[in-house]
Amino acid sequence: MASDPNAPTTEEKRNARVILRRLIKRYPQMKTALEYENAWQLLVATVMSAQTTDENVNKVAPTLFERYPTPEDLAAANPEDVEEIIFSTGFYRQKTKSVIALSADLVERFGGEVPRDLDALTELRGVGRKTASVVLAEVWGTPAIAVDTHVSRVTNRLGIVDSKDPVNAEFRLRSLYLKKDWPEISMRFIQFGRDVCDARRPRCWECPLRDRCAYEPKAVRPS
Ligand code: SF4
């Protein structure tokens, strides 16, 4: 059988693992900063975290979950009431629609239980591969890689991924790393993207991955 021409080389895999090891050294414990008590709450919180900080979500989530403690409750919520609670997270109308719809789907199709399966999760309205992967990796340590804007930017700059398409990037990362490492990956690249490899001002001068990075020209320390 012919070998896959897109399969990473041994050297590419080795390089990717060196990068991950350094990120694990920098961030030994990596959990989401979102506060949650069960998989459904993390699902809802992750949807609310789009285009805002986890801190902002944590400020409104307790009120939301106190008012609507189960998927059944949120599925039956009046959208205006939910909008009022999550207003400060931005894009609150769309987010309200999504969290109500995903809760309704959960009740209708999965008896209110969050499925532990990527394909089943992405069948829920408002839940994409990224959100589904975050929940699978975070709650159950299920092998999954969530590719968001940080993961996409950092891995492309490093040169271990060569695609802006998140699904292509996810499959490339899957091929570079052993399955047991998948849950370790996303949160660390996300944090690294926030701390060091910023979208507009990457801190290349103090970057621990500089010698592994294909991005040019490297940013210099502002004088
Ligand atoms: S060297 Fe610069 S561009 Fe490359 S990973 Fe580090 S911060 Fe990002």
* CATH homologous group name of the largest domain: Hypothetical protein, domain 2
Please report the first level of CATH classification, the CATH class of the largest domain: Mainly Alpha
Number of strands: 0
Report the order of strands and helices: HHHHHHHHHHH
Helix vs. strand class: mainly alpha
Structural domain count: 2
Percent helix, as a range, is 55-70%
Could you describe the 3D structure shown?
With 223 residues, the protein is mostly helical. The protein has two domains: 10-27 and 145-212, Endonuclease Iii, domain 2 (Orthogonal Bundle); 39-140, Endonuclease III, domain 1. It has eleven helices and no strands. The longest helix has 19 residues, at 92-110. Bound molecules: iron/sulfur cluster (SF4). Iron/sulfur cluster (SF4) binds at residues 154, 157-158, 196-197, 202-204, 207, 209-210, 213, 215, 218.
